[in-house]
Design goal:
Chain A: Pathway: Cell wall biogenesis; lipoteichoic acid biosynthesis. The complex is a heterodimer of chains A (504) and B (75). Chain A is an alpha/beta fold. Chain A is built from 16 helices and 25 strands. In chain A, strand 9, helix 7 and strand 10 form a beta-alpha-beta unit. Chain B has a single domain, classed as ACP-like (Non-ribosomal Peptide Synthetase Peptidyl Carrier Protein, Chain A, Orthogonal Bundle).
């Protein structure tokens, strides 16, 4: 059975089993099947070009996942766009992806010219109908299953295409390597436009599990967060290490108060020794895993279990060993493999590697190369294998950073800053904390002449304009106003110089 | 204690104007977000010895430098 069939099969085996729990609002596997069949039938009636992508706009409500499933049942790929996104980003993604329709789970903030839209009202009506749908044309093999947009260096995001077989490879690994049982309750915390969400969504649904959602507004309100968390009866925790840092602030977040919680999976950014050690102290009997992988290779491809021995051996935690069907090699600039103990670029090949960026042959050609006759992805990450075969992460070859798990190209932040009317010129750099992790983005700005009383007001105005242009997580936390930006000898902004000003 | 809190806040937000703007709303102004709040609570713990029970953390009670100073001084 493929992913779609496996999820549907739970509607037959155990129709009243809870698939989704959104702050107490529960939806069953039967509802998931009925809703997704209704969406699939409606899409089929729209008579759209085969396999072309469809945008899904919304937050973390149950309807989102029903729509995703409905779309792949018709052979189309879905593009999740979070309702947190500014209109500008929707317009940009619409232009790049050239989708054939948009399903708006939440009201669209902007009109997407010429695009057929299924409105929230229409969707509600669809969900109230019961239709039978036979998924004869569902997504399979190399057909694209989902497309997730990530930050791009030219200010234009890139759509990573993940096929059905990429996803199957990822799911097989999730099932074989982590000891997670069927019918487990998973934390569902990241937004669907962030591929970390795939680490809870499909592993849970294909195995009869329940997704317990913590929406963004709850994560940001600590009082509410810690009143909701104990009620979820979680078995499997999937999040960024940053979100765990919030939870560890609460003293009662431990094995005694969360006895069902037995698995922790981290991805999206570096798991620090400190966070891992604290967590293992709180949950001494839990299986805690650090994982690593870029969106382009389907969520993650390496894993390592965090044990007391591992913590004792490594000051900076390794990112693990590759999954069985995948090869991870460390190469030099000529794509020649280097020996263990030597640092180089991490290159990944195997069945979970994407076929490339949607409608972007130039970027695809740069990042996806042939290696040993196979489609390989150049991560731009620096790594090194140690004598135990563990992959160690050593940083980036370019200006990409991870901030609380979000992947950000500094050039994209600069690009958006440059579009703000109050800004003459700007460049941003990451400020690192003590733990090799980015704690803030710092923008150096040459401001245009303005009438603001002080820099606080100017910063507020710039941030407000930025919010209409870029994702919230790409807005720098700190603004420094300067008369001019330092330049390198060939006239480019000297980012290294700025970097050294904020990192001593 | 007041100076210490302002110092922590200025370091976290990168703004050197806070001492003159003690009633500014740090969240509305985009100077603090939830991850910066985590940092703030950890700094208050290590530098001021104040343990804030996070499960009782109400953002509206912590949204200006003056409110934060008052909270810390009351603990």
């Amino acid at each position: 059975m493929n992913v779609i069939q496996r999820i549907d099969s739970w509607a037959q085996r155990d129709p009243q089993r809870v698939a989704y729990n959104y702050l107490g609002k529960e939806n069953t596997y039967l509802e998931l099947k009925n809703y997704s069949d209704s969406v699939a039938a409606a899409i089929t009636n729209m008579d759209l070009p085969d396999k072309a992508p469809i945008i899904v706009y919304g937050g973390q409500e149950f309807e989102m996942i029903a729509v995703f499933l409905g779309i792949v049942k018709t052979g189309h790929a879905y593009i999740p766009i979070d309702s947190d996104s500014p209109s500008e980003r929707l317009v940009t993604i619409n232009r790049i992806a050239q989708p054939v329709a948009c399903i708006a789970v939440e009201e669209l903030p902007v009109e997407l010219a010429g695009l057929p839209v299924v409105t929230p009202a229409k969707l509600k009506q669809l969900f109230s109908e019961r239709v039978s749908f036979s998924a004869a044309n569902q997504v399979k093999g190399s057909d694209v299953f989902y497309i997730i947009f990530t930050s791009g260096t030219t200010g234009v995001p890139k759509g990573v295409q993940i096929s059905a077989q990429n996803l199957e490879s990822f799911l097989a690994w999730m099932e074989s390597d982590f000891g997670i049982k069927d019918e487990s309750t998973f934390l569902s915390q990241p937004p669907y436009s962030f591929d970390l969400s795939v680490m809870d969504l499909y592993p849970a649904l294909t195995r009869g599990g329940t997704l317990s959602v913590i929406p963004k507004k709850v994560t940001e309100d600590f009082r509410q967060l810690f009143s909701v968390l104990p009620q979820l009866k979680l078995n499997v925790w999937v999040s960024t290490p940053s979100f765990m840092d919030i939870c560890l602030l609460e003293k009662s977040f431990d094995e005694e108060h969360y006895p069902q919680l037995q698995h922790f999976l981290f991805c999206g950014e570096e798991l620090t020794h400190k966070t891992a050690q604290q967590l293992l102290q709180r949950f001494p009997h839990a299986a805690i895993y650090n994982t690593y992988g870029p969106t382009e290779t389907t969520v993650a491809v390496t894993q390592v279990q965090i044990t007391a021995d591992l913590l004792a051996k490594y000051e900076r935690l390794p990112i693990g060993k590759p999954k069985a069907d995948t090869k991870v090699v460390v190469v030099d600039e000529n794509l020649q493999e280097v020996a263990a103990g030597t640092a180089g670029e991490i290159l990944i090949y195997g069945p979970s590697v994407s076929q490339g960026y949607l409608n972007n042959p130039a970027k695809t050609k740069q990042a996806f190369v042939k290696f040993n006759e196979q489609n390989a992805y150049r991560t731009g990450d620096l790594g090194e294998f140690d004598e135990a075969g563990q992959l160690l992460y050593k940083g980036r070859l370019d200006f990409q950073v991870k901030l609380h798990g979000f992947r950000i190209e500094l050039e994209e932040v600069d690009y958006h800053l440059g579009k703000v009317g109050l800004v003459e010129q700007a460049a941003c750099v990451p400020k690192y904390g003590m733990d090799h992790k980015v704690s803030q983005l710092v923008a150096f700005v040459v401001a245009k002449h303005n009438e603001f009383k002080n820099n606080l007001e100017l910063t507020k105005a710039i941030k407000e304009q930025l919010a209409t242009l870029s994702m919230p997580y790409m807005i720098p936390q700190r603004f420094v106003y300067v008369d001019s930006l330092p330049l390198t000898t060939n006239g480019k902004v000297d980012r290294k110089h700025l970097f050294s000003e904020v990192n001593h | 204690m007041k100076e210490k809190v302002i110092e922590i806040l200025e370091d976290l937000t990168g703004s050197s104007d806070l001492a003159d703007n003690l009633d500014i709303n740090l969240f509305d102004e985009g100077l603090l977000d939830s991850m910066a709040t985590v940092q703030l609570l950890l700094e208050l713990q290590s530098q001021c010895g104040v343990e804030v029970p996070v499960s009782e953390f109400e953002r509206s009670e912590w949204d200006t430098p003056n409110k934060i100073i008052a909270k810390v001084e009351s603990m």
